[in-house]
Specification:
331 residues, alpha/beta, three-stranded mixed β-sheet, binds NADPH dihydro-nicotinamide-adenine-dinucleotide phosphate, NAD(P)_dehydrat-like, Epimerase_deHydtase, Cinnamoyl-CoA reductase, NAD(P)-bd_dom_sf, oxidoreductase
């Protein structure tokens, strides 16, 4: 029988591609979602794979024992559920608790209720690698050896810092859990920067787009009169991120490793140039800026480890932009 992986937060932008990537490879997937309504939407999204997909309701990932039942009987776990919001008002309940306790609670659930699981892949983030105090850091190539040095005090300074900190503390909590408890399973963390690409998951309307898709939508809906300046200088295609989850689950070498997953540096100017050329109907609602302006000197991400050990290949930037906009136009 094909192995079954548990994918938490199966309703999300990235998770939908992760679920799809596992289903396409013949795996059975058990997805966790917060409600029956969400379960029905996820089922609809993957209607071609009805026999391979089941859904499990976990209403609150921050609750003690949240995943105790969900982990029973599966062969591996992909933990993607975590809030990606940059404007939270209550950092503790909206960000830190679901991110950190969500992570430790699934690891504990696996150790206590499913000793057969050998690999857990966690959707981390470049947020836990970046040092925001160093700014654009021209010439610096971030690697998996870098850690965001954010402190608990700094974490509360604003919504962006709080999000970056939630991912940093959650990843640190995962490694600490493994160190302290020596479980049967190994953990792999994937660390993408901004993730763009086609929106596959159920979206009620454009107002409810996930954070990174909304970041592209604002380039085409007329809300930006100027080309925005980057907050982060690297991105990954969601399909590559999904494939990385499968590879990280399958490759023995990925045990206990962190991987930066990123296509290339980018600017919104590059994105707007591509949009204005490929979607002439959007020229009136996409800022012009300075077409062809070169990438300023900024940090880069060294992805050689993921290429070497996972065998990942990255989608060209232009394909990501075109496919993202195509999917947003459909919504
Ligand atoms: P989405 O908002 O689309 O998905 C987030 C998922 O997590 C949803 O399934 C959501 O459930 C679930 N979730 C969020 N908060 C809670 C909570 N309190 N309790 C239960 N479930 C919760 O975001 P993405 O797909 O973009 O993000 C997925 C993961 O990828 C996150 O871990 C994020 O940090 C990480 N990431 C994202 C990047 C990006 O640019 N998109 C970049 C780097 C990392 P529901 O649908 O019910 O709200």
């Amino acid at each position: 029988m094909a192995p079954t992986v548990l994918v938490t937060g199966a309703s999300g932008f990235i998770a939908t591609h992760v679920v799809n990537a596992f289903l396409r490879k013949g795996y059975n997937v058990r997805g966790t979602v917060r409600s029956e309504k969400s379960a029905a939407e996820v089922r609809q999204t993957h209607a071609d794979y009805t026999g391979q997909l089941s859904l499990f309701i976990v209403p609150d990932i921050a609750a003690p024992h949240a995943f105790d039942e969900a982990v029973k009987g599966v062969d591996g776990v992909i933990h993607t559920a975590s809030p990606f919001v940059l404007n939270a008002s209550d950092f503790e309940t909206e960000l830190f608790q679901p991110a950190i306790q969500g992570t430790t609670s699934i690891l504990k659930a696996i150790q206590e209720h499913n000793p057969d699981i050998r690999r857990v892949v966690i959707t981390g983030s470049f947020a836990s690698v970046l040092d925001p105090s160093k700014g654009v850091r021209p010439g610096y190539a971030y690697t998996e050896a870098d850690w965001n040095p954010v402190t608990a005090e700094e974490a509360k300074s604003n919504g962006v810092f709080a999000y970056l900190a939630s991912k940093t503390f959650a990843e640190q909590a995962a490694w600490q859990y493994v160190k302290d408890n020596k479980p049967n399973f190994s953990v792999t963390t994937l660390l993408p920067p901004m993730v763009f690409g086609p929106v596959l998951h159920h979206v009620k309307d454009v107002k409810s787009l996930n954070t990174s898709s909304a970041d592209i939508y604002r380039l085409i809906d007329g809300s930006e009169t100027e080309v925005p300046t980057n907050a982060f200088w690297a991105f990954a295609d969601v399909r590559d991120v999904a494939e990385a989850h499968v590879l990280a689950f399958e490759k023995p070498a990925a045990a206990g490793q962190r991987y930066l997953i990123s296509t290339s540096p980018y600017t919104y100017q590059q994105f707007c140039d591509i949009i204005r050329e490929k979607f002439p109907q959007l020229q009136g609602s996409t800022p012009n800026g300075t077409p062809g302006a070169p990438l300023p000197p900024v940090y880069t991400l060294d992805t050689s480890k993921a290429i070497r050990e996972l065998g990942i290949r990255f989608t060209p930037l232009e394909d990501t932009v075109i496919d993202t906009v195509d999917s947003l136009l459909k919504i």
